[in-house]
Design brief:
Fumarate Reductase Cytochrome B subunit; 67% helix; elongated; two-stranded antiparallel sheet
Amino acid sequence: MNRIQVWDPAVRVFHWSVVLAFAANALVIDDDSKLHQWVGYFVVGLVLLRILWGFVGSRYARFASFPPSVSGARQQAADMLSGRRDAHAGHTPLGALMIYNLLLALLVVGVSGWLMTTDAFWGVEWPEELHEIAVSWTEISVLVHILAVLYESHRTGVNLPGAMVRGYKDMPPG
């Protein structure tokens, strides 16, 4: 196995901070509390910092290292179906699509939540409905993400959760 540094501290702190904050807001903190709002603002702030880091960060943190690619996602799906094990140093094509999905979904959750607190949308239903749909979409996406990470770890032999903790991946040769 070849050990390579993949996830820098900023990416790892972002990831686990969003995990904890989103889980707290979804599962523990009262939806009507000020704490819920502040944790939501914190998540939006983290996402905005991550977007910035996607342009100026380390090699594998940069969006240029994992552009959205339908053809790449198709190839990865074909590899999965055929049993080919093509391990990726950074995000896989399907993983990249999930990352973009989650970043956008978290922004929609945050902006729609904020809209619910403004006078301009007081008593208007659609911001709350959008917020609820976006939260549900994000929760489903998180579950799919976790299952995909576990599946890909098993399929490729690369410990993906461990890499997000330690920052490096032990990659098979070649």
